[in-house]
Design brief:
The chain is α+β, with helices and mostly antiparallel strands. Helix content is about 30%, strand content about 10%. The chain has one domain (about 1-175). It has helices at about 40-50, 90-100, 105-110, 130-145, 175-195, 220-225, and strands at about 1-10, 15-20, 55-60, 65, 165-170. The termini are far apart. The relative contact order is 0.12. It comes from Streptomyces olivochromogenes. Pfam families: RepSA. InterPro entries: RepSA.
Length: about 250
């Protein structure tokens, strides 16, 4: 089983998670799953997991907090009919299907900020909604509490306290970011090579041979350094004034 998940900001300041969960075959996503692995079975498993998962939160004022999924869980089977024009159900089509949720940030959905705050007083100079201002103030105030310091809420107050990555996926869901960076670098090298094709190749000689020369100043360097020292009472030296008292 593999997944891809994106976080979507709502105008009310809450974060919705949209996930594509896929049952893979025995050799990974390129092979079909077994016959018993139906969409109905996967739907049941998702709802059961969401109803039972618990994450222990911090203890605030002697009260322990526990985080769970809310009641708004909508599980839908992705089919070709969900795409425009009856597009074929492919990995690219599914990626485009969820990309619209990934493009929403806190600054576009709630009118919040796109950079961290250094001081809370900066809020007075910013053109943001009252709703976003209250959420940021709340995150900033909670960030001052000793029991919540590990959450670094002040550093993420501009994101309404949410410090998770907007996009995560299991390793086997699709290609890795490292593979994408490698492919991009290879493409750029190929483009650069094509642009210089036919030009006369120039040779650059690099000298990387070092010889120990010594430590300290030579006699000439010592004389030059001494000649550049400022005279007493001038710039670079303290000026003393004699004061007579009786």
């Amino acid at each position: 089983m593999s997944f891809a998940k994106v976080a979507e900001y709502q105008k009310r300041g809450a974060v919705h998670f949209h996930a594509v969960i896929r049952i893979d075959g025995p050799e990974g996503g390129d092979t079909p799953p077994p016959a018993w692995a139906t969409a109905e079975l996967l739907t049941y498993a998702i709802r059961a997991a969401a109803a039972h998962v618990r994450v222990d939160g911090p203890v605030i004022d002697g009260r322990a907090h526990t985080f769970t999924f809310g009641r708004q869980i909508d599980v839908r089977t992705i089919r070709s009919a969900d795409f425009d024009g009856g597009q074929e159900l492919t990995e690219r089509a599914v990626a485009s299907y969820i990309a619209k949720y990934a493009t929403k940030g806190a600054e576009t959905a709630t009118g919040a900020l796109d950079r961290p705050l250094k001081f809370l007083a900066e809020l007075a100079q910013l053109d943001i909604s009252d709703h976003a201002r209250r959420l940021i103030r709340t995150a900033w105030a909670l960030g001052a509490r000793k029991e919540l310091e590990d959450l670094r809420l002040r550093a993420w107050a501009h994101m309404l306290g949410f410090r998770g990555h907007f996009s995560t996926k299991s390793r086997r869901y699709s290609t890795t970011l490292g593979a994408l960076r490698t492919a991009r670098a290879e493409w750029r090298r190929a483009q650069a090579a094509a642009a210089t094709e036919g030009e006369t190749e120039m040779t650059t000689l690099v000298l990387a041979h070092w010889v120990f020369a010594g430590i300290g100043l030579s006699s000439a360097e010592a004389w030059l350094a001494a000649s550049l020292e400022p005279a007493p009472g001038t710039e670079g030296e303290p000026t003393w004034t004699h004061v007579a008292t009786s």
